[in-house]
Write a structure and sequence with these properties.
Radius of gyration of chain A: 20 Å
Largest sheet of chain A: 5 strands, mixed
Shape of chain A: globular
Number of helices of chain A: 11
Oligomer: homodimer
Structural class of chain A: alpha/beta
Distance between the termini of chain A: 26 Å
Chain lengths: 336, 336
């Protein structure tokens, strides 16, 4: 029997698209799959709970079956696709096409996802971490359309960031760049899960912030009332309570905006982007609670020449972001 | 009379080189001119005091005459050149090919240097600011050869920085990126000449540091002895006195290294470069006074994955750097 050779994107087709793209966004809780045409228009999409069994081989099989189902239901076949794109949480080894060890995917350790999936699907597979994938999606189809230089920051469990520089995804040496979640925003500050002190993630990341909230949220605050109990408080309750004018929640949002502005100022001096897109909690908090105060703070910390044409925006794709994230990885993620 | 049309780099030749390159590095004190062959080998070079009269038109004429002299003495003519490159202090308007208002070039305000020089020389001209030019030079011919991602920091009057990302010069929106001299390294810290507080330049820039030294250097320190008087102390005296073990000078170098490491740590998380090249004072201070302590500090502030393959190096081109800076702008600076 011949050794397995994963399907390759024909050299002549690299760089422009003629067929369909399959996009897969695998998160710790949801699996989103979409099919897009050559222009990026979504022609089919589905979301279901992530099939995470603890056994990555079984998980890959389940995901491939889901994808194959969606392809069949769309009256398409593997040969109609240029590429499949996989957006995964956590770091990716681009050379090996492997997912390293995302804390959100139990049992996944060095999974050679690119080859396994392309073998199952019969379609060439590209991989990116989810923040890079979302940066591509917001740049091509969302808030950052038309920009040459864009930074995307998303505050979920941690803080994920992606950079589009000079009109392409920037990955840095061995794909390790764009860890703005670990920009120091307070010298000798809070201890971060990464081991360093004062990282942006130690203030804005959902895990760190939830831990803090569960320690200090006043039992009488609207934050605790919305959560049901202090042990269940999370950033989304802060956003909701701040929207109702709760004093504690408003102070917490101020702290959030304060540290976020420090990171954006550093970004502006370093990279002079035209657009900074802020996802998740920032997008949920909206203009009054987050974007206006953040822009005002950035304004005091950055030169006019750097801030006057800098747009700080919420995501533009809303609930569609995971679909476009996967599709954008198929379109221009790393082929390895 | 036909309007002047500056010579253009023939489209067919853009991206590869067949002829000679003229490199011009104009600083506040020195003018360096070099001629390089297609491989970047220097075949002629000269340095003289910058001909700065206060009248940019006269200055441009003097520089062009110098360049024409060197070309003639090398038995070459304008037609033998692919391009001329101009490295200038301060910001450049790439669209207009203009030098904005460098504090080191008296009288220069919005000078359309690209068109003026190409008109005089009969050679297409490219422009970059000096930190970008030096970053290109150290990347192509100096300490950073072979790297895909490199940051260059030079501590002169201010702090200039240049970025090579994904194998090309990164300029950001309107060429405004790479202002790492204004990375905040101390919240609410020293006032910088730029108006912000706590900028790297407010600690490491020669102007700011000299001002501090002239206020606080103990009259009994070796720093003052070397300078002749406290009013004349500058960073180079700190480097020299620290080399002799002077306590005050060693403390000042520690402070320098402390803030430099903070900026490099931020750079590493953001961009994951393979090489950080530190020019001027850092290169002069050398391994024991600067590079070893900076590396040790960066090590405590950055993840192993980001620092293990990060090389923090002095410049590799020494006194030749200005020649290569100009030549590299000719080779791959902005054609506008």
């Amino acid at each position: 029997m011949l050794p397995f050779r994963p399907p390759q994107i024909p050299a002549a087709f690299q760089g422009f698209l003629i067929g369909f793209q399959l996009g897969i966004d695998l998160g710790g809780s949801k699996l989103a799959i979409a099919i897009a045409d050559a222009e990026g228009g979504l022609i089919a999409q589905q979301t279901r709970p992530s099939p995470l069994s603890g056994d990555p081989e079984a998980d890959v099989l389940a995901i491939a079956e889901d994808a194959a189902d969606l392809i069949a239901r769309s009256d398409l076949a593997a040969r109609d696709f240029d590429a499949a794109g996989f957006s995964v949480p956590g770091p990716v080894d681009h050379e090996r096409g492997a997912v390293l060890a995302p804390p959100n995917l139990p049992g996944w350790q060095n999974v050679p996802l690119r080859d396994r999936m392309s073998e199952r699907l019969g379609i060439p597979v590209r991989l990116e971490n989810d923040a890079n994938a979302a940066a591509l999606a917001e740049w091509r189809f969302g808030a950052g359309r038309g920009a040459q230089n864009l930074a995307y920051l998303t505050m979920s469990t941690g803080v994920g960031t992606g950079l589009i520089l000079d009109g392409r995804l920037y990955r840095g040496h061995r794909g390790r760049a764009s860890e703005f979640g670990h920009t120091c925003v307070e010298w000798e500050g809070e201890r971060c899960a990464c081991g360093q002190r004062g990282c942006l993630e130690a203030y804005l990341g959902g895990a760190a912030w939830s831990r803090r909230l569960r320690e200090i949220a006043p039992a009488t605050s609207q934050v605790c009332a919305l959560a049901g109990s202090r042990e269940l408080v999370s950033p989304k309750h802060v956003v909701a309570a701040a929207g109702e004018g709760d004093a504690f929640a408003c102070e917490e949002m101020e702290r959030f905006n304060h540290y976020l502005a420090r990171a954006i100022a550093a970004l502006a001096f370093a990279l002079a982007p035209e657009v900074v897109v802020l996802g998740t909690i920032a997008t949920a908090a909206g203009e009054a609670l987050c974007f206006e105060p953040v822009r005002a703070r950035v304004e005091t910390q950055v030169w006019p020449a750097l801030r006057d044409e800098l747009r700080i925006l919420p995501i533009g794709l809303g609930e569609q972001l995971p679909y476009y994230a996967g599709v954008c990885v198929a379109r221009e993620g790393s082929p390895g």
